[in-house]
Amino acid sequence: MPVRPLDLIATDTLLDDEERAVRDTVRQFGDDRLRPHIAEWFEAGTIPARELASELGGLGVLGMHLEGYGCAGTSAVAYGLACMELEAVDSGIRSLVSVQGSLAMFALWKWGSDAQKQEWLPEMAAGTKIGCFGLTEADFGSNPSGMRTSAKRDGTDWVLNGTKMWITNGAVADVAVVWAQTEDGIRGFVVPTDTPGFSAPLIQSKLSLRASITSELVFEDIRLPESAVFPDVTGLKGPLSCLSEARFGIVFGVVGAARDCLETAIDYAIGREQFDKPIAGFQLTQKKFADMTVELDKAFLLALHLGRLKDAGAIRPEMISVGKLNNVREAMTIARESRTILGASGVTLEYPVLRPANNLESVLTYEGTEEIHTLVVGEAVTGIAAYR
Q: In this structure, what DSSP letter does residue 209 have?
């Protein structure tokens, strides 16, 4: 009988009972609730975000790796496995979860005041409130230090002006974590989205991450009280710490996308006959499967190792760059190669191969482009920064 690619090296033996239980629970949710609709959502270019957030909150995956405030407090590995199963369905679903938990919630959990945490985190963990994370601007992606969004003091208040771009969950969010230039440097602000002067126009006509809500954020003379600012962090340390959290989820998540593409291609090739035999029986096809299986297994082992390091408190940002650089690159290769095995069928939404391949085009460049992560790794091994 055929062996599933990740079973070939007995990866289950590397997980404990709780980790396998989390993985299996999220996988079942994906199979039952998400897969029947994901092609339709992708084609429509939207998702029922509020409904899904509530269900994902009930499942316990929103901010699941955080402690307290209604969060599950699981291990990093368990969180990574949840991301893997969600992205096995679609990168857009995993993005909803990781932006909520690893960007917006983590920022509040790590840098927020006690009052900010108490006000937002329990409802965000339950999925009854949705958050977004405003860092990237149209002209400042890889170089966030140049951001133009600004907050200026006016008496005891702050006045926020500017725009952010490519913001997941933006149009459905109840709260935005926004980073802005101030006279003291870059600071973070907690901005309820019903504040006068806030708007979040949808970004339309995407060819990737279509099953995801993506928006611009616009701030026009938004007046915020002193209690809206994160009290104890200034500079890029704040937002970059959040990005490291989200990138970790990507390292695991893309393994799920690649696994689903490869398993789809294998199942298709076993049932598809040409020249009176299954195309899975041809040597060139088996070479493709062997190459993809080896890279998938290596990517999973790298993600798991980084997860163990994170749980031990020994992970560094450049390690996560190694994981994102390698695993996204290999996942894209696997998705594209899987598409070739399905032939013309691979370009339809009937099979999950070109849809994940399209999604991975976005994952390649968000939360650090391939070039930036290459330079992070290059600096780590040479001691020389080459960003300019």
A: S
